[in-house]
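Researcher: Let's run the pair from yesterday's discussion. Sequence first, then tokens, for each.
Model: Starting with the first of the pair.
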Amino acid sequence: MGEGQHVELFKGLVDMERRHAERLRALAERVGHPVVKALLLGIAGDSEKHALFYQAVIELSTRYQPAISQNEFRMLGEEIVRHIDTEARMMEVTRELLNKISDPRVRLLIAAVHDDEVKHHGVLVSIRDNITSEYVVGEEDLWNAIWRDSPWHGTPGG
């Protein structure tokens, strides 16, 4: 499925996720139980996140994406490692808590946090491995940009 061909579908998903988040927040405001309220608000937050992800797919499909600067590469590379370490520590803390706590209500909440920490860790590792590694432009890339990929094939501007 080519993402560019399905922009309208993704726009609909953005709207659906946002409406879903609003309804869940409204429901959570009417519930007094702290665990149920927290879970509903957490799901609402995830729906907002999903809307952001779908919006990013739309932007990737319809707009030019700027290159990441050398400063951004350096900053991302340094910061991502710290966040990967933090997520790893939080995975360990929540794993230990799950082994110690017997109350099923608390376990439900801690398990949800643990699952998120595992996902976050995986996403950050993927960013480190796939996005923050610099792409070195080689001579062949340069010549392709000047000749093959340019509408003017090396001549000054047409």
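Model: Moving on to the second of the pair.
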Amino acid sequence: MNPVLKLLLEGEPLSTEQMGQVLGMSETEVAMELEKLKDQGTLLGWRPILNPALDDDENVRAVIEVKISPEREGGFDRLAERISKFDRVESCYLMSGAYDLLLVIRAENLKRIAQFVFEKLATLEGVNATATHFMLKAYKEQGYFIARAAADEDKPAVSP
């Protein structure tokens, strides 16, 4: 991975000093606010938004719908938390509809995603069904447009 991208993914976008300058606050005040937001669970981390089409890590992303049986005491929560602990799982959501959970996962290739589903996910007690959908192209990621509609290159400039 590009070292600058790696630093961005693992670091904070602005220092507390820089944030203070932008907000007109002292560095100490900013640090205290950040700490308070972390303690409250509001601020979970920092991540830049990468263009998947230009990401040199050539990973494959998939969305997996999972149908599970709720537990008597824990409902969906215990199994959802267990599934969320897998390294491949980037996101896990409780959903309404035909499936209960929606997972976003990443792997090196299609085979690794398939292995994750049939070796790890589908074998868990309480998992009744899965449906895997591979992401082919991103148009918008977390509010940012990624792929712009290409001009019709096949159309002649003037029609006969």
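Researcher: Give me one sentence on the second I can quote.
Model: The chain is about 30% helix and 20% strand.
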